[in-house]
Design a protein that fits this description.
Elements (H helix, E strand, L loop, with lengths): L1 H19 L3 H11 L35 H20 L26 E2 L3 E7 L3 E2 L8 E2 L29 H5 L3 E2 L1 H4 L4 E2 L4 E2 L3 E6 L3 H13 L7 E12 L4 E11 L5 E10 L7 H28 L7 H37 L8 H28 L4 H12 L1 H4 L1
Antiparallel strand pairs: 1-9, 2-8, 2-9, 3-4, 5-8, 6-7, 9-10, 10-11
Helix pairs in contact: 7-8, 8-9
Length: about 400
């Protein structure tokens, strides 16, 4: 009887708290997460999937969206041009300080007063050729996606005209912006974007001169429709140098124009430190690492002569070969990067930093160095696990990897 009375007291207490002391707001909030159909939608929203039943409470009123007219579209483009001139171009030059004083001894620095532009910034465009559609009864010309085979390489006059315009005189920067230049002249290389792989050539505008000239040239390029429906990629590249910490930075802004009409933008900032050894400890560790690699090479050569073809039947042999090959590859890439550093330093010294220097090749070399380092760490981790193969848990882990190697590969 005692346990029955306690049970009844618990049931009655739970019913009392549930009906008289509960918080209605919390229940409503919980119902919003539990009941998917109880969520009210706005006028411009709709369910991702259609409901199984129709109800007056979940019906949505249609909302008509009007397209922009020509005036609204022109105003939007003008506003975007104003943003480029006021935000990007203005920050390419060191402006006044917060107290109104002019910047002194900051020639070539950008507006942060800490980084100096090596040479000048460039804006490079890649275009496609004019292509005729297969059925010209419907559409005469077709705008395809960019590829290395349909890239436009013809030299044009301002406004993408084929004939020479004698009435209007343009500056040399405007004329060069409509002339195709190869990757050898620009010292640029192939770049892999999100959607396509782009060549190193193109139509280039150089941000050189006074700030007022840059703004007027951008307005002129906008009037001449330098960017039109044949444009497929716009690169803005600049190289920065921070003398305070002796750090180079490669900056690449990419805007991809797809044939579907959409635009995709990406940015890449690559800080580069060309000093190989920044401390004595790093130098000592590198020397010790080289001695270990030489020691491993001698051991593996001896095992290869002793075991011959049986050497390649052992799993540990591939681990050791992977570490040795990646380590030797890192040494070669180190030497390659050091040679590029000497070349860039020589150009920087000869031109005092007033000539354009592209760090794109150095960025690729640095990426290759990172790849080799990653593979060295990968093979080193596998070797570390292999050394602990007699441990039960490590052995279970290695056996799992061995059975799942086909699915992992």
């Amino acid at each position: 009887n005692y346990f029955l009375n306690v049970f009844l007291k618990i049931i009655c207490t739970a019913i009392f708290f549930d009906y008289f002391l509960r918080n209605s707001n919390e229940d409503e909030e919980a119902n919003e997460y539990i009941d998917d159909y109880g969520i009210s939608l706005n006028n411009d929203e709709e369910y991702l999937h259609s409901l199984e039943y129709d109800s007056l409470y979940n019906s949505q009123s249609g909302k008509c969206m009007n397209r922009l007219d020509e005036n609204q579209l022109a105003n939007a483009r003008q506003y975007r041009l104003k943003e480029i001139q006021m935000c990007f171009v203005s920050n390419l030059r060191a402006q006044q300080w917060y107290n109104g004083e002019n910047p002194r001894n900051l020639n070539g620095f950008i507006n942060d007063k800490s980084n100096r532009i090596i040479g000048w910034s460039t804006m490079r465009q890649l275009r496609i050729k004019l292509d005729r559609c297969s059925d010209q009864r419907i559409i005469s010309t077709c705008n395809n996606d960019y590829s290395l085979f349909n890239e436009e390489k013809y030299a044009f006059q301002p406004g993408w005209m084929n004939q020479t315009l004698k009435e209007v005189q343009y500056s040399s920067s405007i004329l060069k912006a409509f002339q195709y230049r190869t990757s050898d002249k620009l010292d640029t290389h192939i770049y892999i974007g999100q959607h396509e792989t782009y060549s190193g050539g193109g139509y280039v505008y150089e941000f050189r001169g006074h700030l007022s000239d840059l703004k007027s040239n951008l307005s002129k390029l906008h009037e001449l429709k330098w960017i039109d429906d044949k444009t497929r990629a716009i690169f803005i590249q600049l190289t920065l140098y921070n003398p305070n910490i002796q750090l180079f930075t490669s900056v690449i802004f990419l805007v991809e124009f797809l044939s579907t009409g959409s635009i995709s933008s990406t940015a890449r900032f690559e800080p580069l430190n060309f000093y190989i050894f920044t401390s004595v400890l790093q130098l000592v560790c590198t020397i010790c690492y080289m001695f270990f690699i030489i020691y491993f090479i001698i051991i593996e050569i001896r095992l290869l002569f002793e075991l011959k073809l049986k050497y390649f039947h052992q799993f540990r042999s591939f681990i050791e070969l992977g570490i040795i090959i990646c380590s030797l590859g890192r040494i070669e890439v180190y030497i390659w990067r050091f040679q590029e550093f000497k070349r860039i330093s020589r150009l920087f010294k000869e031109t005092n930093g007033y000539d354009y220097i592209n760090l794109q090749l150095v960025v690729y070399v640095n990426d290759l160095l990172t790849f080799f380092l990653g593979y060295c760490c990968f093979f080193g981790t596998i070797k570390f696990v292999y050394l602990f193969r007699f441990n039960q848990r490590i052995s279970l882990f290695t056996e799992t990897l061995r059975y799942a190697r086909k699915e992992l590969i």
